[in-house]
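Quick question, first post here. What does this chain look like in 3D?
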Amino acid sequence: MPDTPKWRQIAENLRQKIESGELGRDGQVLPSELELQDTYNASRNTIRDAVKWLVTRGLVVTRPGQGTFVVTMIDPFVTQLTDDGAGPGAESTAYASEVAAQSRKPETSVPRVEIKKADGLVAVELRLAEGTPVVSRHQQRLIDGTPWSLQTTWYSMDLVTQGAVRLIQAEEISPGVVNYIEQVLGIKQAGWRDRFQVRPPDRRETEFFHLPDDGRIAVIEIVRTGYDESGQPFRVTVTTYPADRNQFVMLAGDVPDESVLRGAAQGGTG
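> Answer (accepted):
Ran it through. Tokens below.
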């Protein structure tokens, strides 16, 4: 077999140093090209090929005019997919409880409330004519200080005119908007449908989640449409999660707790 190219040897050595912590794992700047050329007695192109290999594997990120930085390693958050209304599409109160239950620190921004005209997905999901007024409630979510998800929920303005006036107030609604609508208007959420898709992030998502601007880290978009007891949709929620810090687990039937399974695996006889 041919010898391993020098750039690949250098890349592997740098990878080992990054993963061991020798070069840091929290945004530390990588040595400059000149320093790496001296360290490895290699040409500029060889060093660039090695760094490019690290970039494609998500270990470092290059910022023009600033240098190359070790990517901060993020502890993924695991969201359970169940039939109790939690998980993707859940309101901020349920989200905060789920995060806190995993000994993590949740943060949610004050809702940004806007009145818009329904179009595209919102009009289709809520079965409204294009241009019908809707209320949108947008929030940013963080876990342990790291941007984790973005969520926007739309409601028909008819709900406001019927008496659910808190929908247009920029404040958290406890114990949740769905419960509030049921209490005030008697409209109960009888079920919902979730749709998942994976796509490149848009500019807003790239900036909020601090993602590389080449689109190599995708976002998971989940659209939840809630229906009342007559089968009429009354809310549509779009939540986006960056794929580098989120995992989803589907539970069905009698399933052992994951912490028990991890303990068994670590203490196995091997």
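The longest helix spans residues 6-20.
The longest strand covers residues 133-143.
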